[in-house]
């Protein structure tokens, strides 16, 4: 139940600001209130939901200031990862990324949902190649927190094209041992993504909404 609710929030079927009751949402999903309440309070602890006395549940509004901070943390983690990509085994991991991102233009992904998953995989792959499991754990947590808006970055085709080009260039620089240059490009790349997220408006979020569920107000 928890995973279904979180996915509905990520897919904007449960939209920022939507209000609902425990009874209404439990009836909609066809479950009892006990497992539903467990899922709701878990999402409350993670910051995706709010609850108020006699006001029921509410999907939290997107906190863009917090997202800015998470993107900045991503930059720190990924820069540190690039500095550690030196061993032969790490370069095998880089080769796997090259197979995805160094492809002809007509072979590039165009679907925004699949594209954002590929993008997540690229940046996770960089950190994984560093061989530091704790760094990877923190990076995975950051990735989870920004996922709700990350896919919106790829609604515009030019962002997809830029991502392919920049990822391929970063991999080339890493392969040639030009880690400082790769780090400069990575910082610019993630910063631009952060700026694109900042441009997301309520109307853009509304366009991304799949459909309004019947139990929300």
Automatic annotation (TrEMBL):
Question: Is Isomerase there in the keyword field?
Answer: no
Q: Name one Pfam family in it.
A: FCD
List each copy of the HTH gntR-type domain by range. Answer: 1-62
Q: Which InterPro entries match?
A: GntR_C, TF_FadR/GntR_C, Tscrpt_reg_HTH_GntR, WH-like_DNA-bd_sf, WH_DNA-bd_sf
Keywords per UniProt? DNA-binding, Transcription, Transcription regulation
Q: Which domain of life is it from?
A: Bacteria
Any GO MF annotation of the entry: DNA binding
Q: What is this protein called?
A: HTH gntR-type domain-containing protein
Which species expresses this protein natively? Paraburkholderia rhynchosiae
């Amino acid at each position: 139940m928890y995973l279904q609710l979180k996915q509905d929030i990520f897919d904007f079927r449960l939209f920022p600001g939507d209000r609902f009751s425990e009874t209404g949402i439990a009836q909609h999903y066809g479950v009892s209130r006990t497992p539903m309440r467990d899922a709701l309070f878990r999402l409350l602890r993670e910051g995706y939901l709010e609850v108020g006395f006699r006001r029921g549940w509410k999907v939290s509004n997107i906190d863009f200031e917090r997202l800015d901070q998470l993107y900045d943390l991503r930059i720190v983690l990924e820069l540190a990862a690039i500095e550690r990509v030196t061993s032969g085994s790490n370069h095998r991991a880089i080769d796997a990324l090259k197979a995805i991102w160094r492809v002809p233009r007509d072979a590039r992904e165009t679907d925004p949902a699949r594209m954002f998953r590929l993008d997540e995989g690229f940046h996770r792959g960089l950190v994984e190649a560093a061989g530091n499991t704790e760094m990877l754990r923190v990076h995975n947590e950051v990735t989870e927190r920004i996922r709700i808006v990350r896919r919106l970055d790829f609604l515009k085709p030019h962002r997809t094209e830029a991502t392919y080009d920049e990822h391929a260039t970063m991999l080339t620089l890493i392969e040639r041992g030009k880690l400082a240059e790769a780090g400069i490009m990575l910082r610019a790349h993630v910063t631009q993504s952060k700026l694109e997220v900042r441009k997301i408006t309520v109307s853009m979020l509304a366009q991304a909404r799949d459909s309004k569920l019947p139990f929300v107000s």
